[in-house]
Amino acid sequence: MTLECVARRRSVDLVDVAFLPGQLPRKRLDLNGTYQLFFQEEGRTFRLRTKIEEFIGNEKLLLKAIETSLQYGEREYFRVNADFTVKYRLITDDIDVRTRQFSGRINLSGGGLLLPLTERVRNGQKMSLTMILCQDPLKVVRCVAQVVRICPLADGLKGAGMQFTEIEPPDRDAIIAFCMAAQRLELRNKVQTKDLT
């Protein structure tokens, strides 16, 4: 069972987590079980193995950390769908390969992205990426990514699942911060929609 929440540290080993109204399945939670909590703090991604310390009302839990670790691999970053622009160029000896661009909704994480493409690519190919995450203020991230999977998308596009292979820490931090902002906006919109209905 996977649940989205907003986490706030109370102390080194205690974390308050809040859920949207009606999203916390209290009856399905085992007080003797353990739960994994993934969150970002100061640009770094953490994983906590926790136990439920206390129920706080119907929409909050107090969790106690029993193990903490930093995360690095692609699968260990949470993913968001967000609108931004990617300029990409296949890394090859062919000097005639041109830079292409996609603007729209892209699945992104601190470890990679799923880029919609019209052209064919193969697993293992590398691309130089320039991601324009924000126009005002301008935030640009440059890196190299490798194609690790191909999947069909709507409108005849193919999704190239890419893992970042060469990226500077400040650029990865910028991507994680962008993902967190997108997640907060989505959560805020969900809450507003719930209040309107």
Description:
This protein is elongated. The protein is built from 1 helix and 11 strands. The strands form 2 sheets. Strands 6-7-8-11-10-9 form a 6-stranded antiparallel beta barrel. A hairpin with a 2-residue loop joins strand 9 (126-135) and strand 10 (138-152). It has one helix spanning 169-196; strands spanning 6-9, 14-18, 35-41, 44-56, 60-70, 80-90, 100-108, 112-117, 126-135, 138-152, 158-166. With 197 residues, it is mainly β.
What labels would you give this structure?
single chain, 197 residues, mainly beta, six-stranded antiparallel barrel, five-stranded antiparallel sheet, 14% helix, elongated
Head-to-tail CA distance between termini:
26 Å
The total of beta strands comes to 11
Shape: elongated
How large is the radius of gyration?
19 Å
